[in-house]
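Following up on my earlier thread - several people asked me to post the actual chain instead of describing it. Fair enough. Here it is, all 181 residues.
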Amino acid sequence: MSKDEDLWVFGYGSLMWRPGFDYVSRHQARIAGYHRAFCVYSHHHRGTPEKPGLVLGLTRGGSCRGVLYQVARQNADETIAYLREREQVTLVYREVQVPAVRLTDNTRIHRVLTYVAEPSHVQYAGRLDAEMQATLIANGQGKSGRNPEYLESMVVHLRDMGIRDAGLEALLIAVQAKLAG
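Reply from S.P.:
Thanks for posting it. Predicted structure:
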């Protein structure tokens, strides 16, 4: 990113509903080459090292719809510093630049900042079965709150965007069943 360009940030998890930074515009967008998955053990925001939660990460393959934020160039450095502090607490996420398509007008944005899960990191959970995902999420709690609230917020915000994710909706039902029983 050059100093005379605005910063573009892609959010696919909690950045969708709680960005925490000032932005000029917000759009639905899609990136290719990565998909959203509960593939990261949370030791900070939604769990602890002793009792990890489970949070979303971008992992290789497919595509992902999320939110694209345009940040004024004069706020870019401050926003990047904030995102690094938030997203790279334990370095389980790697900062990358990817292209994205703004869905409102199909404009391609060539350099978009986002965070992908690092498969070599000890907190990378990979593909866990639905039962293990539900157990971790039902029991997780960290500095940012209870893990079930994170999942519920994700499902609600995807619905608000017109996206029904059958896998996440089934996971939410499984977590709610664990909490009820």
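The radius of gyration is 16 Å. That should answer part of your original question.
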